[in-house]
Design goal:
The protein is an alpha/beta fold. It has a domain of 138 residues: Rossmann fold. It has an eight-stranded mixed sheet with strand order 8-9-10-7-11-12-13-14, with helices on one face. A six-stranded parallel sheet has the order 3-2-1-4-5-6, with helices on both faces. It is globular, with a radius of gyration of 23 Å. The C terminus is likely disordered.
Amino acid sequence: MTKLRVAVVGAGHLGKIHARLLKTQTEAELVAVADPSTAAQQQIAEQLAVPTVSEYQQLFGQIDAAIIATPTRMHFEIARQFLNQGIHTLIEKPMTDSVSDAQELVHLANRNNCIVSVGHVERYNPAIKSALELVGTPKFVQASRMSGFTFRSTDIGVVHDLMIHDIDLVNTIFPGELIETRALGMSMFGHHEDMAQARLQFDCGGVANLTASRCSYEAQRSFQVFGTDGFANVNLAKSTVTFVKVPGWIKDRQYDLLDTTPEQQAIIREELFTRILPKSEIEVPTSNAILSEQKNWITAIADNEPCRVTAEQGKQAVEIAQAVIDSIASHRWSKHDPQSTGPFGMIGSTPKKILPFRSVDDSEQRKAA
């Protein structure tokens, strides 16, 4: 069988990871890595023994597919040119930093019959999958992504950089439309928000509270989901899941725990997290999410089927991210100011409604994902 000819554009942190993992894919051949930096090209050549080029346009006619792992501001133009050449693309998250650009890429992918995947890699995280299988119907999500300032992805704010992972997850978890966005944020070091907190509400009733910071003293990556059957806490840094199951007699309100004797209350307190609300650590299978992402994309191209994370879904994440950013920008920190940046360049919490943006055809795929 002829192998899929693939190139990686961008030899930064993620580009190197993609290139290394692509070399292990049996159904694909890593043709080259494109990067304008001579030093980056030399590193790739030495570490991976892969051909390099300085301009990605040199790859036209030589490849079937490309992974775009450049700074976000370059995603649109590079992807546009590849799609116009009929080249399948995997675009690192966020798809673009502009809703209109994301819409254009969806249009080009459809027009040129190209399979596009977007690098929302948490969709391939087995810990997330395990948690969602346990909780029943999700009702509330609380997620935090905190890190120090790394000087990476400074062309975008923390909403596009970190929060967008959880934006994509809740957009997949909750069916229906996003109907309300409330957010606030703060810029500490650059021209974009470095800290952000958002509350998203969907018309199914689902609610998500998302927090992201890239100027935190302590690194943290957690995803908590409350559902009809219990609560799951995912430690994304360690890939572990803690699950608390809610028994049927509590869920169905068969007994009034407040209508109990002091002796019964003492027993309840003692056995709350052992017999009444048993807590368990869930074994999560080991996997490489980026490798799984690549395999899904390569298989989708071979079978001419949509990827797990489609261009349409990548666009939806950008739309929600923009609603968060708009809400941040519209916040007034003082009632006397029509609009205020405030101390530390604070920017962002008024309700922000956005128009429906999901297609009917996309709903079944979202459930399956």
